[in-house]
């Protein structure tokens, strides 16, 4: 509606349980979320970080949004409205260059890590 491009470097895309579409946009340094009609809801640009390079993005059955930050080697957990909840994984948990992720039906968080060529499974929700 404003005549501006909503995305400039989309990489990963997923649909949330509420019908929102979540897109990690490397060039905008944001996760851009639109509703099912395509109207912009919010953009998440990291939690006080100078740089935020979102890569993989997924959602869980509660509607949380999980996103890999390739710059800080972390996985961010957001609520369905884009509010930061916590860092799920950091370098202290041994994560390096997280690039892709998903949550399976048993609430395991599966994270692919570039450069180390590893896929790691974490127990996510109990």
TrEMBL record:
Domain of life (superkingdom): Eukaryota
Keywords recorded for this protein, A-Z: Repeat
Leader sequence segment: none
Annotated NHL repeat ranges: 53-81
PANTHER family in UniProt: E3 UBIQUITIN-PROTEIN LIGASE NHLRC1-RELATED, PROTEIN LIN-41
GO molecular function, one term: ubiquitin protein ligase activity
Name of the protein this chain belongs to: Tripartite motif-containing protein 2
